[in-house]
Amino acid sequence: MKKIVLFTTLFLNLNLFGDYLQYSGLSYVSQEADIEIAYPNTLKIEDSLIAFLSDDLRQNKSKNPELSLEVSKTFKDGSYQVIVALDSENIMSIESIVEDQISCVSTYSLSGQVVVFNAKELQIVSIKPYAINRRYLDKGINCKNINKKTQLLRFAQTFFGLEIPKNQYENFLILDDSQMVKQIKNLYTDSKFIYEKAFIKKISNEILSTNLSSISNTNFFIGIDDVQLGKLALSQMSGEKEFINNNYFLDANNNFKQQAYKVWIGQEFSKWFSESFNLPLIPYVKGKALGLKISDKYEDANELLNLRLPNLDFGFVINIRGFKKVKLDESKLREAYAWAAFSKIEFHNVGIKKITEIDLKYIHTQEVNKNQTFDDWDTFNFSQNKIMKDYVSNIDTFDKKWLKQASKMSSKDFKKHVNYIKKNIRL
After folding, report:
1. By C-alpha distance, which of 128, 394, 138, 132 is closest to 282?
2. Burial class of residue 144 in the structure, from the number of CB atoms within 10 Å of its CB (0-12 exposed, 13-18 middle, 19+ buried)
3. With 12 labelled, which of 111, 148, 183, 323 sits at a CA distance of 20 to 30 A?
4. H/E element holding 328?
5. Distances (CA, A) of 375 to 97, 196, 214, 335, 352
6. Cα–Cα distance between 221 and 124 in angstroms, integer?
7. How many Å is the Cα radius of gyration of the chain?
8. HSE (CB half, 13 Å, CA atoms) of 411?
9. β pairing state of 67-68 and 21-28
């Protein structure tokens, strides 16, 4: 049985007094009481992930002289700790008609956070989220017939950034789970080059790029203050109005999981922002019970960590307003549709006042075959994510054409909107 440490995340006023960064391995964030339920595949891949991270960090340690990979008896030795906290493993599947065959379209999702904190004071310095999605199409196969071993193979290659052809699956599926995962890891590490965009490699690179001396805003926190679902959006995603429920965020009873969707929205926005400005946002985790498994190499690894979220100085509020689908054209064999997502993004001096806001939309158009079952939520989720990505991109580099398509706000007012944000968060 895996050890779990439950904690709530907390940020306090910080003083920098550690002079090195102790790598503390993998951990798990979960709303589930048992990580075996939340991470059935990742747990089988865990040993290979640990081995890769250990090897890669040692081989590249010269990139971060502050990084310590030595074994310590306690994680409360006054050093800074960096933990890889995996927070989601998920498969969302929908049956579709492809070339007159019942087929399964599945999206495999992984997400995690690189968490840095002062272990002695139980004070978090930063959290940087990472996420990846992989799409798979299984023609002529019912979703219920995708076996668990195939799912494990796909999660393993997602972690390591591989694209194993389906005609080679059997070479791996004949192995037991442990052997199969090891072979996939070896296939990645034995290649002539390490794919830098692989999920686990991006995690390793983040650890290697963590610079303690650059951590100076210890009393200044920016993050996702809230994610709000408008009445219309909630009814649409719950399957009560216009569309079936958003199948990417369903519980075992096919009910829409509001909290999971909110966490995803906050995580994606944080990711785009961090990538654009190298300024990690505190992600949205409001109301989330966190479970953290600390590395077993510490004698006190089973102790409770009492960490809490900080009071944000400034924060974004993302309001999901609703969705709309319109048929644009039709022929004998094909139909053209537009899928639109509508949001409002607010910027607050948290607990004091709203500083600025903007209404945004994104419209995706596509032709589909009349005999093809199309998942509306696949496109709506894409459109909502595109709103956030483009918005962050235009805070960095303004594009008048984008603004004209995305909002009714004038260029002059948008520049003011951006200046308010940049000035207050010190960009």
Report:
1. 128
2. exposed
3. 111
4. strand 314-330
5. 11, 32, 45, 14, 41
6. 11
7. 22
8. 7
9. parallel
What gap in Å lies between CA 195 and CA 192, rounded to an integer? 10
Which helix (DSSP H) or strand (DSSP E) does residue 141 occupy? Answer: none
* 361 closest CA partner among 382, 393, 384: 384
* Torsion angles phi and psi, residue 66, rounded to 5: -80, -10
pLDDT > 90? residue 95? no
Q: What is the pLDDT of residues 111-138, one digit of tens each?
A: 888 888 777 766 677 778 888 888 888 8
pLDDT in tens, 340-354: 999 999 999 998 999
Q: Is the confidence at residue 194, as pLDDT, over 70?
A: no
CA nearest 15: which of 216, 209, 214, 210? 216
Q: What is the pTM of this model?
A: 0.74
Helix (H, G, I), strand (E, B) or coil at 162: coil
Count the alpha carbons within 13 Å of 352 in the hemisphere toward its beta carbon.
Answer: 11
Residue 119 near residue 72, CB atoms below 8 Å = no
Q: Which domains does the chain have, with CATH numbers?
A: 1-219+282-311 (no CATH), 222-279+313-427 (3.30.160)
- Residue 78's pLDDT is what? 58
The residue type found at 302 is N
In degrees and rounded to multiples of 5, residue 242 shows phi and psi of 75, -45
User: What backbone phi and psi angles, to 5 degrees, belong to 351?
Assistant: 80, -5
- Residue 174 corresponds to which amino acid? I
DSSP states along 176-232? -HHHHHHHHHHHHHTSSS--TTSHHHHHHHHHHH--GGG---TT--EEEEEEEE-HH
Give exposure, 235-244, as e/b (b: 16+ Cβ within 10 Å): bbbbbeeebe
Question: Is pLDDT of 392 > 70?
Answer: yes
Residue 296 in 3-state DSSP?
coil
Rounded (10°) CA dihedral 153, 158, 164, 168: 0
Average pLDDT over residues 248-264: 83
- pLDDT for 310: 66
> By the 8 A CB rule, do 123 and 116 touch?
no
Q: Which amino acid is located at 25 in the chain?
A: G
Distance, in Å, from the CA atom of 134 to the CA atom of 111, rounded to the nearest integer, reads: 12
Report how far residue 96's alpha carbon sits from residue 107's, in angstroms, rounded to the nearest whole number.
13
